[in-house]
């Protein structure tokens, strides 16, 4: 996160939301950091004297300090490229579609099912979680 924010600010001053959007676009949607990870990192960078924030129309515009620019130069040009290589985009989409289908089925059972059906539905979810962890426990 830190290296990505510094690299973006090396290009130009930006608002936090702009940085979130930029990283999402540059990774082809594979990585879109949450505000809960971006803003605390920006605050830490500010406390370390690497960035400074200026109020502009009620929003904070972040820019590198000289010290921040020096660190950004050492970090590399585009650390977000690693996120795009790490994940197989087709696999991410396949998992997302499967999770959405399961979510839909769970909601249906929980909203319209009997008490017995809801209990069975929760048991299926607990068993699925157990089986997923067992896959990781298998020897490669």
Can you give a write-up of this model?
This protein is mainly alpha-helical and 140 residues long. Helix content is 69%, strand content 9%. It has seven helices and two strands; from the N terminus they run H-H-H-E-E-H-H-H-H. It has helices spanning 2-11, 16-26, 35-47, 66-75, 81-86, 89-112, 115-137; strands at residues 51-56, 59-64. The chain has a two-stranded antiparallel ribbon with strand order 1-2. Helix 1 crosses helix 4. It is elongated. The two termini are 31 Å apart. The model has no long low-confidence stretch (mean pLDDT 87).
Question: Which geometry do the CA atoms define?
Answer: elongated
Query: Over all CA atoms, what is the radius of gyration?
Result: 21 Å
- In helices, the fraction of residues equals 55-70%
What structural class do you assign from the helix and strand content? mainly alpha
Q: Main sheet?
A: 2 strands, antiparallel
Q: How far apart lie the N and C ends?
A: 31 Å
Residue-averaged pLDDT: 87
Strand content: 5-15%
What is the count of helical runs?
Answer: 7
